[in-house]
Amino acid sequence: METVIGPLESCKLTADTTTISTVKNTLSPPSVATSEATLGRHLARRLVEIGVTDVFSVPGDFNLTLLDHLIAEPGLTNIGCCNELNAGYAADGYARVRGVGACVVTFTVGGLSVLNAIAGAYSENLPIICIVGGPNTNDYGTNRILHHTIGLPDFSQELRCFQTVTCFQAVVTILEDAHELIDTAISTALKESKPVYISISCNLSAIPHPSFSRDPIPFTLSPKLTNMMGLEAAVEATAAFLDKAVKPVMVGGPKLRVAKACEAFVHLADASGYALAVMPSAKGLVPEHHPHFIGTYWGAVSTAFCAEIVESADAYLFAGPIFNDYSSVGYSLLLKKEKAIVVQPDRVVVGNGPTFGCVLMNDFLRALAKRLRPNTTAYENYHRIHIPDGLPVKCEPNEPLRVNILFQHVQKMLSENTAVIAETGDSWFNCQKLKLPEACGYEFQMQYGSIGWSVGATLGYAQAKPEKRVIACIGDGSFQVTAQDVSTMIRYEQRSIIFLINNGGYTIEVEIHDGPYNIIKNWDYTGLVNAFHNGEGKCWTMKVRCEEELTEAIEKATGEKKDCLCFIEVIVHKDDTSKELLEWGSRVSAANSRLPNPQ
Predict the structure, then answer these.
(1) How far is residue 137 from each of residues 113, 121, 140, measured CA to CA in Å?
(2) Residue 254 to residue 249: CA distance in whole angstroms
(3) How far is Cα 110 from Cα 101, in angstroms, rounded to an integer?
(4) What was the pLDDT predicted at 213?
(5) DSSP code of 223?
(6) What's the pLDDT at 33?
(7) What pLDDT shows up at residue 1?
(8) Residue 15: is its pLDDT beyond 50?
(9) Interatomic CA distance for residues 37 and 179, integer angstroms
(10) Which residues have C-beta within 8 Å of that of residue 343, sequence separation ≥ 6?
(11) Which entry of 133, 187, 425, 460 is 20 to 30 Å from 432 by CA?
(12) d(C-alpha 500, C-alpha 68), whole Å
């Protein structure tokens, strides 16, 4: 189906949509006053048009005039961040909700600082418009040396860095080219679901031009189309393959999001009756209340009884998987290629046999649902062997708090009005075990796994979806990387709940390879957040050391402090980890420690 971009009318979201909205029915867009017909205002209107109502920025002398024109746009709010890395992470979190995000930084010092976050968004298939205020047009092609550079007259260093982590780069140094370059960059980001880079010379943002004299004329993205002959052949081959199986299963992967095929995947599960699992990085993309849902498939650290059903199946359909060393638990999955149907966003591979290109996942899954014979054998096997989860051993009065008790309480907080952000570390594993109610959000960054991501992502997610209360689970080591932008959450009146899990170090690294470098300096985390608060805005903090204090903290956070940013520091033993992390860490360590192949 064709995707049309036009003035924003709605921000309603589903798993299979972005906030790119429909075009208002107008044949002649109204004229814009000359003072508003500038490059900066045009870019602002384009961002609003595709559903970006907030941009995350750090000011610098090369982007100040551009920021003036962005904040002058009524539909756009500037969210000033403490550093560029967090601005990029915030745009990442925002894009996970809205379908697209944007950040604005200054030349080179800002651009190279945000680069890590943009690389993470690239790995996670998130469209982010990364806007950089660039040098004055008169300085290009001269031998002048500018500040914010590495001291060479060549200004292309930043561009070259972004070329490997963005799908399009636009350097606007000629006003007449700006309209086309900006439209091409934005449309490419949306079509490819990857970040793009737009550099705008600092002396162009305020200049009017006839191409900006009207509201942006709605433009149409060329739709990706399925080859119908390829679709028919792929469906026929897949149906024959799966219908021969005795106990087939289906597993959802993270590329369901970029393929916009979450609903089609569930439709196939309804039609086929297959047991339904997700890869860890797809948690939250598939409803866990589905009657045939059996949990997270993550090899040796899967949820209970899930791996046994998946790996014993005689056929499995993987939709949008990413098999890396982390998701495969150090390459230890017990899967066989000849048993697998692998469906990627535009390609289907059947076992060791044929590959069908130019077949879109959404079209394929819907067509396959009409052809498969129902088969509930795998789910019936799961139902027979499944034993309900046991409860953690009850705490004695004032006993030091255990992590499994913490997450037992987090489980009770979840509803359709909440979203979970899980930081890289043991929170990956503890949050995977949470059972998500219908419409409860869930995000984590598995492919890139950059510690500290969750602080900025929490900021961006909460700004994009203020009606949901974000519950972020962050380890102390990760928090120390990006802590500053908790102050931005307070500044913009967000009401997230942050559980800071203080266990004295980089626990995930300890379980892969221990050493003194995994021990960190302990902070007074609640004192730090109180300093950020500084009596301005709504913020509440508490340290908890036992279950009684945790219960009190959660009651306050969800009761009288429900309109505040709530920061709860949870102090636990340094060796208190999930069993899944222990298993996963040892297998990843083994994969990392493989000796070189003989030459």
Answers:
(1) 23, 30, 6
(2) 17
(3) 17
(4) 78
(5) P
(6) 63
(7) 34
(8) no
(9) 12
(10) 317, 318, 319, 320, 361, 364, 365
(11) 460
(12) 36
The residue type of 143 is N
Identity (one letter) of the amino acid at 100?
A: V
Alpha-carbon distance of 301 to 327, in angstroms, equals: 10
Q: Which two tokens stand for residue 175?
A: 């006003």
Q: Across residues 158-167, what is the average pLDDT?
A: 97
DSSP state at residue 519: B
For residue 545, how many C-alpha atoms fall within 13 Å in the half-sphere facing its CB? 3
**Helix pair 39-49, 175-192: axis angle to 10 deg:** 20
The H or E element containing residue 566 is strand 565-571
The alpha-carbon radius of gyration of the chain (Å, integer) is 25
Residue owning tokens 């909460």: 462
What does the pLDDT average to over 36-54? Answer: 94
Is the CB of residue 436 less than 8 Å from the CB of residue 442?
yes
DSSP category for residue 338: G
Q: How far apart are the two ends of the chain, measured CA to CA in Å? A: 52
- Report d(CA 263, CA 362) in Å as an integer: 8
Residue tagged 């949509």 (tokens): 17
Helix H segments across 312-402? 361-369, 377-385
Q: What is the DSSP string of 285-342?
A: TS-TTSTTEEEE--GGGPSTTHHHHHHT-S-EEEES----TTTTTTT-----GGGEEE
Q: Using one digit for the tens of pLDDT, what is the confidence trace for 483-503?
A: 999 999 999 999 999 999 999
Residue pair 155/199 in contact (Cβ under 8 Å)? The answer is no
* pTM (two decimals): 0.92
